Amino acid sequence: MNKIIDRTLKERWISLHVENEVGVLAKVSGLFSGKSYNLQSLTVGTTEDETVSRMTICVKSDDVTFEQIKKQLNRMVEVIKVVDLTESPIHMKEVMFVKVFNLDAAGKEELFQIARVFSADIVDIGVDSGMIECKLTTRKNNELIALLKTKFHRIEVVRGGAVAIESISTCCI
What we know:
Distance between the termini: 42 Å
Shape: elongated
Helix content: 25-40%
CATH superfamily of the largest domain: ACT domain
Order of helices and strands: EHEEHEEHEEHE
Oligomer: single chain
């Protein structure tokens, strides 16, 4: 019996625990670039153990390619643990700042209303501009950007990449 292979590209999430040493990020990202895998997002930070860093990686790939990525990461000496978060219940957020320019009084009020609806914070305001700080999911940040583009002529976006962790419980209350 032949196994059906899914070649559909979809976002896949991996959490890596790696040695917190110089050059580890370059080796991991080099693996992706060397194989022509495109990273959607990559964030790195230390964990509760200062000798270990955690990388959260999002890559768009098919099933076969994703399995190859996980196998190659597992072979790296500096990688302590590879966790596939793709099908797991997770908590995920992405930090994003958006500057909105050329605002009059009505535009500022509209910006405040939009920020409130998205549970974002206005963190800076100028004579004719404002800045929003968001800690939302990637999808919600994309929706916010799309809305801001329709409402305002000029925006500037800085995104920090997503971090994710497995849920403690898998059931809803």
